[in-house]
C-alpha cells in the first residue's frame, strides 16, 4: 500500500530557503546591474534570516529580547548593504 508524502511546515520553509538560494545564484550569474543584484540579495538575506530565526532556531516563542536583537541584526545589516548600493 502506497502512502502519500506529507510535508511539514519546516520542510516547506526549507524548500523556500533553497529556492531563494537558487534565485540569488541566478541573479548573480545573469543580471548585469550590480546595484539591483545587491538590493535583491540583501532583501532575500533579510527574509531568509527572519525565517531561520523564527522557525529553525525556534526563537518565535523564546525570550522577546533575544528574538528582537536577532531580528534587528537581520534587518540592520542588509539595510546597510542596500544603502551602500546607492553610493
Note down, in words, how this protein is organized.
By secondary structure, the chain is mostly helical. The chain has helices spanning 9-30, 34-56, 64-84. Helix 1 (9-30) runs antiparallel to helix 2 (34-56) and helix 2 packs antiparallel against helix 3. It is flat, with a radius of gyration of 16 Å.
Distance between the termini: 62 Å
What is the overall shape? flat
Mean pLDDT: 89
Q: Helix coverage percent of residues? A: over 70%
Q: In a few lines, what is going on in this structure?
A:
By secondary structure, this protein is an all-alpha fold. The protein is built from 3 helices and no strands.
List keywords for this structure.
single chain, 87 residues, 3 helices, 76% helix, flat
Question: Could you outline the blueprint of secondary structure elements for this entry?
Answer:
Layout (H helix, E strand, L loop, with lengths): L8 H22 L3 H23 L7 H21 L3
Helix pairs in contact: 1-2, 2-3
